[in-house]
């Protein structure tokens, strides 16, 4: 690790512009999943440190909200440039703590920079309205204002870009933030503190805490000074946090779990579908919320798809993310490996056929073989549950109506994908699928310009697109009377 990388590895929390330890001095070890070795430690902060960070953010809000959109936009452009100038260092940290390949990590860091630039541009377009008045002597204005202190909690699978989607709109609108990154991948989160300092973002505007999730989360969701909670993570924790915020009626944005279907119709371009299937399943070793959970393939093309898909899966290079050519790194930890094994055991017991993979990788640790399971059936556990690993179950279907029903038969509604060359079918299926993101003949669709967000129990609100800024704004109606017109 060179000096530029190590300067971003902060083993402290950022509260009101100070890098500090936990009050108790307690720390947590952070491990590299590729080697099983410790990278360093982080403070084990709790309720008291969180209350202080919220206070710091509330104080900073008083002046930050008064800066002009142009000033904030300039600072964010600087932040964007800094991220790109340090792309390799930030990607190295990401790979080290998370396990994804260096190429994917660089892509994630680039996406973080893109979100910051997007919101730097959007900052200057937070328009209100002047509404035709029903009264001759009054005028009606609708204005937009920053909500205030924002609490942000993020998961380990995209430890850099999930924060970009939250810090970006907060900074753009004039909000301040208290951030809690995932305990397994904290350094990519803490690095945001270094970057924000270097970009000249004032002390207290961005605060970052690590430690006890329930204590930090408890304070973030119950403290009345926090106006909004934005969370990315599991549906289970999202529901818990929504309940906790109810006591102080906070705004909430939730980016939760998924159970993405990937449908291949008989008329699909098979090679294109196979390439899309690899991207939509095996990115980040299957550990993304938009990763395909269920492949549905129409009966005529089923065998050929399984064959070609398996050939492509067998080409995937598994290894340490820092080794050149690696496409699939280790899973985040041994719990993830055990969970994947449970899904496979359940499927084989119920008639699933392992076509490739199916077991721990010869590299040891939390490496797992990319796996394809043919003859998947509705009664198998992954029909309902998020796999979050490199396992691709392939179901066979007969008709369009039937597959739409099966695809929608889940409480989730984040991403879905389908392949067809029939234009009429493309529209029917797109309109029939109850999902927030739809890839038609594409397996990788996330981009900053488009609104990302789930339906049903996959979440509330959008990140990215022009929609992404709205959740950070209060709408205020102003009636100006007595004008004597
Ligand atoms: P998770 O267990 O829900 O954890 C997410 C974050 O919540 C972590 O920072 C975690 O802290 C924190 N947390 C856990 N318990 C908490 C509590 N009681 N109070 C406050 N915070 C708490 O999810 P994960 O396993 O890290 O991530 C995987 C999940 O995220 C999957 O379901 C995936 O689909 C979803 N996800 C969704 C999106 C999206 O945009 N829709 C994107 C990425 C991931 P600790 O790390 O300290 O436990």
Automatic annotation (TrEMBL):
- Domain (Aldehyde dehydrogenase) ranges: 19-478
Q: What class of enzyme is it?
A: oxidoreductase
Q: Which GO terms describe its cellular component?
A: cytosol
Q: What Gene Ontology molecular-function terms does this entry list?
A: glutarate-semialdehyde dehydrogenase (NADP+) activity; succinate-semialdehyde dehydrogenase (NAD+) activity; succinate-semialdehyde dehydrogenase (NADP+) activity
Q: Has UniProt tagged this entry with the keyword Oxidoreductase?
A: yes
Which Gene Ontology biological process is one annotated for this entry?
gamma-aminobutyric acid catabolic process
- Which SUPFAM superfamilies did the record assign? ALDH-like (SSF53720)
| Signal peptide start-end | none
Taxonomic superkingdom: Bacteria
**Where along the chain is the active site annotated?**
255
Gene3D superfamilies for this protein: Aldehyde Dehydrogenase, Chain A, domain 1, Aldehyde Dehydrogenase, Chain A, domain 2
Does the keyword section mention Oxidoreductase? yes
Tell me its EC number(s), please.
Answer: 1.2.1.16, 1.2.1.20, 1.2.1.79
Q: Which key words tag this protein in UniProt? A: Oxidoreductase
Q: Which family does it belong to?
A: Belongs to the aldehyde dehydrogenase family.
Name the UniProt record assigns to this protein: Succinate-semialdehyde dehydrogenase/glutarate-semialdehyde dehydrogenase
Q: What is the lineage of its organism?
A: Bacteria, Pseudomonadati, Pseudomonadota, Alphaproteobacteria, Hyphomicrobiales
